[in-house]
Amino acid sequence: MKGRIRQCPVDHLYTLSETCPQCGHPTVTPHPARYSPQDRLGSYRRMAR
């Protein structure tokens, strides 16, 4: 465990574990990806949105 907060996408519960303690689904990190001015693929990611 890295100590970063995680969120269950099903019931929106915040936890530090890899799985949700209530429903058992895998959790995801709610933080956005880091921004880099040298991002080579950023233009493609913005076009996909």
Automatic annotation (TrEMBL):
Keywords: Ribonucleoprotein, Ribosome biogenesis, rRNA processing
Record GO biological process: pseudouridine synthesis; rRNA processing
InterPro entries referenced in this protein's UniProt entry, alphabetically: H/ACA_rnp_Nop10, H/ACA_rnp_Nop10_sf
GO cellular component: ribonucleoprotein complex
Gene Ontology MF terms: snoRNA binding
SUPFAM superfamilies per record: Nop10-like SnoRNP
Chain intervals for the UniProt region annotation (Disordered): 25-49
Membership in a protein family: Belongs to the NOP10 family.
Identification of the protein by name: Ribosome biogenesis protein
Species, as recorded: Methanospirillum lacunae
Organism lineage: Archaea, Methanobacteriati, Methanobacteriota, Stenosarchaea group, Methanomicrobia
